[in-house]
Amino acid sequence: MTTPTTSDTLATDQAAAGPSYSLADLVRYFLKLGALGFGGPVALVGYMNRDLVESRKWISQADYKEGLTLAQLAPGPLAAQLAIYLGYVHYRTWGATLAGVAFVAPSFLMVVALGWAYTLYGGLSWMQAVFYGVGSCVIGIITYSAYKLTKKTIGKDWLLCAICFASAACTVVTETEYVALFLLAGVLVWFVKSPPKFRARPKTAASAILPLAAFWCFEINGETQTLLQIMLFFTKAGAFVFGSGLAIVPFLYSVVVNEYHWLDNQQFLDAVAVAMITPGPVVITVGFIGYLVAGLSGACLAALGTFLPCYLFTILPAPYFKKYGSRPGIVSFVDGVTAAAIGAICGAVIVLGRRTILDEAWQPHVPKIVILAATLGILVSGKKIPEPLIVLGAALVGLVIFPYVNG
To answer: Could you tell me the pTM of the whole model?
Structure first.
């Protein structure tokens, strides 16, 4: 007979007595985390474990691990999806909704304010100078993040490595991303590692995600209003963000810059930079992009479209996740999709880097290369320097050198 652990006993007692915190307490916590939580998704989920599980004991370790697993398996930015799930644990739909809004709202308001300033002062030389330095720095940060993500998620699995490489090559050559390739990668890994038994009709990840392919392929005509375009596109993009907010970067780039021409290359890099220097989820860059395209309405619709799939992919499967979440077919399918998404991130880094450090005649911008190399050097060295400080340092360098390189 197994003796229950202290953690199990606490979780049982808490379930019997009800939560030891109010919904208002939880909302206040996520407002604070959304306003002060720097460091990206890995740091943010670590803060939630430290604060809610270890320190305040509002959430059991089992519930936290379950939420983290769901956030890694289903589409959606990792930290935001975990926040939504933790809100769901004791307060169900209301808790999930308010926790998610509280976590995202502070950073959303910050990027809207920065979008307003950027629109108003973007033509001034000092702001151009700031983003001259920041653009190369952001390429360095994304490069290192993509490396860590690849190493951690794919490792030495030959099949996942091949999928990642093929996806990266496709992104570099075409400068766009194909969701069909992501879905095919998921099905391929599913069939190779966990062949389905067709005698039954299991509800796998494919059954939930494949219909979204038709949604992605739906094209809107030229007469449709820009706001509808924004809502539709960002909802599509949000439905395919697996694990890290960085996964949305190639999707945004291929459509926002190349297809719709809403932003140019430099404006897109500036949008990613804004996400790097603000707290909360990296994917909040969509608010800044939406503001540049269509003002406050565009920002609201872009954020709503991006986070709506994340929200639905959390609260809908949550009641059934304990029963079905660890099925080999689901895990294999998501592994394949994730490998393709990571490949697209790597490919997008190459495309963005090429357009950032080379001019139209393919001549390198030496100062930008130096800033990029310095950023990578700091990150690889392992020094615990927060990314917002690195971006701030690059902005100061840009202010100093821009008059000379642009003169």
So the answer is: 0.70
